[in-house]
# Entry
Amino acid sequence: MPFHITQPERVALSVMLRLGYNQRQIADEIGVHPSTICRELQRGAHAATGHYHATVARRRAATVRVTANQHLRKLLGNVPLEALAAAKLALHWSPEQIAGRLRAQGVTLRVCAQTIYDWLYQFRRDLLVYLRSQKQHYRRTRSNTLRKQQRAALLAKRRIDQRPAGVAGRRTYGHWEGDTMVSRRDTARLGTLVERKSGYLRAFTLASGESNGFARAAAAALHSIPGSYRRTMTLDNGTEMQSYELLERLASLRVFFAYPYHSWERGTNENTNGLLRQYFPKQTSLAVSQEQLDLAVQLLNTRPRKRLGYRTPVEVFEAKW
# Structure
């Protein structure tokens, strides 16, 4: 059946529409297929204005659910049919076997297996003990799937406009931007962390885009830096950033996220990655040793920068420890 978004996601969708997001951007942000957003916009269109309204969408989705559950009326209130289903379940018949037997016997009033499952989970959970598999039936578990948990986590992320006001102006030290550099030749990646005010770089190797790996490696890269210079981290929306709460705990800082397709919101990191590409071009493998990467990082951290008055990131940042 079509997968509908939740009411908090409808509200987020409405806000993103007002901010000028297109359907694909909204789908990436919420974590659904663009066709889901297209259907949702059609469902929530106000009759008078044609604009999307979260309340309208919620009411129409509720109507669809009520209609979808009409099939249960065939079983609910039909005492003989309910008694038959309960008796066969007590004999450890499956809903498929009950429905199939009724159909094979040519009984006039019969139900399908899905109707019996829905009846069980909504009205007769006491009979679930008779099912061979104690796992909840698929149709009734969609709200508990990993996909929904991931989508809820996406909506819970702190956005860049929630950062302390002084971060954008580079008035204080300790505010970082993080990213990964991806190879076109293999799964190897490089993680990069750049301090905004000084341009100071820390980097590490990654075998893959696994999110826990990024969080642990990033925390290890920052471990030797005093806590007062580990305040915030701004990341992009890649899947390798999903374990940001682990990074917050390990590195004792707060993580914020740029908006999708807004690479300029992490401009310091993007520019530094461009400098690092001088040593690791896009057409080459990133399966390099940490020693090779450390050498490139040292060369960048000791290179004078115009915006620093031709001082180096090392001179500007490490002098403050």
Summary: The two ends are 58 Å apart (CA to CA). Confidence is low (pLDDT under 50) at residues 138-144.
